[in-house]
Design a protein that fits this description.
The complex is a heterodimer of chains A (250) and B (198). Chain A is built from 10 helices and 12 strands. Chain A is of the alpha/beta class. In chain A, helix 7 (184-193) links the parallel strand 10 and strand 11. Chain A is globular, with a radius of gyration of 16 Å. Chain B is of the alpha/beta class and 198 residues long. The chains are: A alpha/beta (250), B alpha/beta (198). Chain A binds chain B through residues 1-5, 45, 67, 70-71, 74-77, 90, 93-99, 117-124, 166-167, 195-197, 219-220, 249-250, and chain B through 11-17, 20-21, 24, 49-52, 54, 83, 113, 115-123, 132, 134-138, 153-154, 173, 175-179, 181-182.
Chain lengths: 250, 198
């Protein structure tokens, strides 16, 4: 049986792990390699590395940080940040990534998802959606949460899957870094709309909050500050999810 | 001397991720995209993370089909991963116009699972054991193909590994499958070193 996944996210800037709240007020949260190794030793199922300033600085994600993490760990590594075209997928894979996440460039040019899928297969193409709650739904944001895109997040997830996205990484900006719990309505709405795997992100609070996100329909749940600050361990999260009858890799 | 393992570089793969894992397993890793490099290899790996149609076209564009088939026919250890495994079959529904290497009999089909792609950790059932491995794929060889050596269940059973002599294929990603994946790559590297000696 396919296990649900618990994912640790490393938001990186200038070679360090950083973490903010609602994408703002970034603070230092450690060394990427040390964090990654600690989470893998703890049983994490996947590592996501997001270079949070790459798009704003109009450059690709830090290849050196990615390579250091990818070389050390034996679980999948998804990388995002500053992807502008298909060749950037190749560059990130050549640095050690297994999957590539894209947000801003796909919003500007949705066909990018199709071109990437034709070459790397859709299982390599992760659409990252940063969603903020608005009256009547959720709106997409690009450029690290600084620009609103006139797109409904759920409709965009559906369209992106049809174009070639093989996974949706759905982050609630409202919950990011708040420890307010995942946005379960957002997760459930997206899970109903797409048949591609769904990664829930934003708001992780404690072990139970991960189980809530998975029970709401996510295939994987992602935490950042909750792990960086050792509020709970991966093992605690997995025990709690298993107790809720969610399949976990042990 | 470390056993040499050659990764076929076809322009679409997580080849660096794989190279790191093979190095951790004790191999001297190199990349190759020239026919003479393939002809001279001791052991070959065809990595995944690609559309199988793209992979087959890239292989033919670089005239690598014949040297790969010769390496397999000569009994040199060859490992296909994910789309690389799928390339070993006669064809695939992902790219019906494309001819596979045909060294494993059967056609790769679209997997009929609850979600698509099949993404994450699942169990590889083989010889009464069921270790966890990491999968990321939409297509898979059916469970009943003649050279299947392990199965995995996702909506339906499919062949998650195949084996005949020194020819190996896995639908999952051993480079990202924790301890089980590492063990599997160590065994392949050991196979490569035996080839050296023989």
């Amino acid at each position: 049986m396919l296990a649900r996944r618990i994912i640790a996210c490393l938001d990186v800037r200038d070679g360090r792990v950083v973490k903010g709240t609602k994408f703002l007020d970034l603070r230092d949260a450690g060394d990427p390699l040390a964090c990654a190794q600690r989470y893998v030793d703890g049983g994490v199922d996947e590592i996501v590395v997001l270079d949070v300033s790459a798009t704003l600085e109009e450059r690709i994600a830090s290849l050196r940080t990615i390579a250091a993490v990818a070389e050390a760990v034996d679980v999948p590594v998804t990388v995002g940040g500053g992807v502008r075209g298909v060749e950037d997928f190749a560059r990130l894979l050549d640095a050690g990534a297994d999957k590539v996440a894209v947000n801003s460039a796909a919003v500007a040019d949705p066909e990018l998802l199709s071109r990437a899928a034709r070459r790397f297969g859709n299982q390599c193409v992760v659409l990252s959606i940063d969603a903020r709650r608005v009256a009547g739904g959720y709106e997409c944001y690009t450029h690290a949460g600084t620009r609103a895109a006139p797109r409904d997040a759920i409709a965009w997830a559906r369209e992106a899957q049809q174009l070639g996205a093989g996974e949706i990484l759905l982050t609630s900006i409202d919950r990011d870094g708040t420890r307010g719990g995942f946005d379960l309505e957002l997760i459930a709405a997206c899970a109903r709309a797409v048949s591609a795997p769904l990664v829930a992100s934003g708001g992780a609070r404690d072990a139970g909050s991960f189980a809530d996100a998975l029970l709401a329909g996510a295939d994987a749940a992602l935490g950042a500050s909750v792990f960086h600050d050792a509020d709970c361990t991966i093992a605690e999260v997995k025990r709690c999810c298993a107790a809720a009858n969610l399949a976990m890799r042990t | 001397m470390k056993p040499r393992v050659t990764i076929v570089a076809l322009g679409a793969a997580n080849r660096r991720s794989l190279a790191y894992a093979l190095a951790r397993a004790g191999a001297d890793v190199r990349f190759a995209d020239e026919p003479r490099e393939i002809a001279a290899c001791d052991a070959l790996v065809i990595p995944g993370v690609a559309n199988v149609g793209y992979l087959a076209d890239a292989m033919d564009r670089r005239a690598l089909r014949a040297p790969i088939l010769e390496a397999i026919a000569a009994g040199r250890p060859c490992l296909g991963i994910c789309a690389g495994f799928q390339l070993f079959f006669e064809g695939s529904e992902e790219a019906p116009q494309v001819r596979g290497l045909g060294v494993f009999r059967g056609t790769v089909r679209r997997l009929n699972g609850p979600k698509s792609p099949h993404m994450g950790w699942n169990r590889v059932e083989r010889d009464g054991e069921a270790p966890w491995a990491y999968f990321a794929h939409t297509y898979a060889p059916p469970a009943g193909v003649p050279d299947a050596s392990a199965i995995t269940r996702y909506g339906e059973a499919f062949a998650s590994a195949g084996e005949r002599g020194n020819l190996r294929g896995v639908q999952f990603h051993p480079e990202r499958s924790g301890r089980y994946g590492a063990t599997l790559l160590q065994r392949f590297v050991a196979l490569a070193s035996n080839g050296d000696a023989g």
